[in-house]
Specification:
Layout: E1 2-7, H1 14-29, E2 33-40, E3 43-45, H2 50-55, E4 58-62, E5 78-81, H3 83-102
Parallel strand pairs: 1-2, 1-4, 4-5
Antiparallel strand pairs: 2-3
Helix pairs in contact: 1-3
Domain PTS EIIB type-2: 1-99
Protein name: PTS fructose-like transporter subunit IIB
GO molecular function, one term: transferase activity
């Protein structure tokens, strides 16, 4: 399974990057390929290419603030979660996506 994600938070500092790291760790632990773009206080980092987006089975977006260029994900299954949930429940999010997409 391949996932892409965009993490962002209102201040664009800690939660943005902690959420990204948590999703990356959870994906690795569950043998899932993931690429995470961060939209933090210093701008967009690790911007997702259209190839990565097209190859992805699903998209995870944080819902704390608006995601820039969100229209890139049109037509893809999108899961919206808070940055806090990404940090605290990253593995649960990845596992639920695995179960849902396996059907």
């Amino acid at each position: 399974m391949k996932l892409v994600a965009v993490t962002a938070c209102p201040s664009g500092v800690a939660h943005t990057y902690l959420a990204a790291e948590s999703l990356e760790v959870a994906a690795k632990k569950n043998n899932v390929e993931i690429h995470v773009e961060t939209q933090g206080s210093i701008g967009i980092e690790n911007e997702l290419s259209m190839d990565l987006i097209n190859e992805a089975d699903a998209v995870i977006l944080t819902n704390n603030i608006g995601i820039k260029n969100e229209d890139r994900f049109k037509g893809k299954p999108v899961v919206r979660v808070s940055a806090g949930d990404c940090i605290n429940k990253g593995e649960t999010i990845v596992k639920k996506l695995q179960q849902k997409l396996a059907k």
